[in-house]
Amino acid sequence: xxxxxxxxxxxxxxxxxxxxxxxxxxxxxxxxxxxxxxxxxxxxxxxxxxxxxxxxxxxxxxxxxxxxxxxxxxxxxxxxxxxxxxxxxxxxxxxxxxxxxxxxxxxxxxxxxxxxxxxxxxxxxxxxxxxxxxxxxxxxxxxxxxxxxxxxxxxxxxxxxxxxxxxxxxxxxxxxxxxxxxxxxxxxxxxxxxxxxxxxxxxxxxxxxxxxxxxxxxxxxxxxxxxxxxxxxxxxxxxxxxxxxxxxxxxxxxxxxxxxxxxxxxxxxxxxxxxxxxxxxxxxxxxxxxxxxxxxxxxxxxxxxxxxxxxxxxxxxxxxxxxxxxxxxxxxxxxxxxxxxxxxxxxxxxxxxxxxxxxxxxxxxxxxxxxxxxxxxxxxxxxxxxxxxxxxxxxxxxxxxxxxxxxxxxxxxxxxxxxxxxxxxxxxxxxxxxxxxxxxxxxxxxxxxxxxxxxxxxxxxxxxxxxxxxxxxxxxxxxxxxxxxxxxxxxxxxxxxxxxxxxxxxxxxxxxxxxxxxxxxxxxxxxxxxxxxxxxxxxxxxxxx
Length: 545
Prior knowledge:
The protein has 545 residues and is α+β, with helices and mostly antiparallel strands. It is 38% helix and 19% strand. The protein contains 17 helices and 22 strands. It has helices spanning 60-78, 86-93, 102-114, 124-130, 150-157, 186-203, 297-310, 312-322, 363-371, 382-392, 429-442, 445-455, 468-476, 478-489, 497-500, 502-516, 522-544; strands spanning 15-17, 32-34, 39-46, 49-56, 95-97, 166-168, 173-175, 208-212, 216-221, 229-234, 243-249, 252-258, 263-266, 269-272, 287-294, 325-330, 334-337, 346-348, 356-359, 406-408, 414-416, 421-423. The model is unreliable at 1-31, 379-383, 395-426 and 490-500 (pLDDT under 50).
């Protein structure tokens, strides 16, 4: 699959829990309930956020209280503001013994290396400069937020460099020779806290449980009725109660980064709290949301941040390196996932809000999902059609788009792949007339019927579906008609050329019909079609460059 079509697609999904829609959801932080049926729940405030804990067990109350204590202990260990914490000690003494959380710190440091600094443990000077934490205060006036001066950002960036951390994996001692280097463990803090509560649940006899910190969540076992947990994925451009999909999961962690959690706008630009350590500014990666589904909350937190900063292409590659499942949402409302297995537990509900669900980068993943019936359509060339059939066999149920690709030509027009239709708005009259005559020949009902039956390409002209040979072809291969109907119903974000450039198809049909009815001449038709397609190309290139 041509990566050009997916470069700008794809997720950071903030998790809005639909696990329990009860009055308990209205309780304030610190409240807790224990039911007679072995269900305990509580909300506690620590590490700057509210944790929601749910436990299903005969001794649910005791388990919940132990989980609460595990969470409370993390703030004093991690927060750079807490005197005596590991971060505070390192930032003031330039040395700290990290052996208490050795594996966790090593994982975070490895993500820094693997992401080449997109995730950076030393980002604190930039975080303090932008000070997005103020947005967490309910009485804070967002309009007072300001974009820092370029000079101040440049100065802060001289103090951000994870490579200046020196870590002894044998002793767990972290040092630096640069007194300006400071660490911030907040990006993995919630994940670390959830891992501590997770250990409590796993050691217990609980049949199920959940620990949620909003954008990071762990679910295990099942709910009281034996069903798995349902986690809604928040619409990054909707209110906090709107969702674009639901994950039905158990025994896993879900970590999300999104540009809507803490942000302000100035002069039409959204400035959010996910900073790119390489630029000093909020990440401008073309993404709104990334969700990582994996076994470890710390890895999930670090990767969701790193993948958001890296963007779709590099983020997909990083997720693949760690073998985790990922869901990306881009600023064009395209949702991408990196593994067809995601469809086993993800229910897409964002269509009415303008979102489009697409497959990820891997050609093998595309074919696997297509062959198993998890996705309805993939786009390819005539040559790829044969390959697809050979790989998916009898399960093949769709064809390819008639206009699979477009490229610029030295004649100043464009070439539409598949039938190699040349549409030129420059060049000699003879060339233009010859090109248009070829177009008329290729899009005649008879030619299109033969072309579709022989190659699998869809016809541009609607009349072709009335030709007997075409009807016979569709009777033998009804899946092509299914695909044709889907293409006709697709919107501009479908990923196929006919979706990206629906005006190309409409213009060709309209102008050829006018020529055949003697309403316009060939020259005018060629010019009209070329202008339409060139305009569409210009818009597409601006959006994807």
